[in-house]
Amino acid sequence: MNQTATARPVSKEELLEDALLQQLHPVIYSTLQILYHEKYPAMDHERIVRIASYLTGFRPDRQASALGGAKVFQIIVVVRAVRHHQVVRMVLNNERGANLYSVSEIKQMNIRD
Question: Which top-level group of life is the source organism from (predicted)?
Fold first, then answer.
C-alpha cells in the first residue's frame, strides 16, 4: 500500500490504481512466469500507464462480450523484472469477457545500469 503512518495522504486515484493492480496481479504474475520460465518471478514497480475504453459492435447472435458488443477496457501496465534487469510493458484487455483480462501484447525493454 502507498500509505504509512508518517507518509503523506494517498489520493483516490492512487488507491484505485492499487486496487486494480491487485485484481490484475494473477494475470501479470503468470505472464512473467511464462515469459521468463520461472516459478517465482521477482517484480516490482507495477504502474498503470494508460487506461482506455471503447465500444465494440453489437452482435445479437453472441453473448455480451467484446465479440458480441460491449464496452471493452484496455489497460497498459509496466512492471520491472528485477532479476532480468528489464521493464516489461503489458497490454491487457477484457475482449473475451467482462470479468476476464488477458495479455494481448508484451514488450521487454532492458534497463540501463
Answer: Bacteria
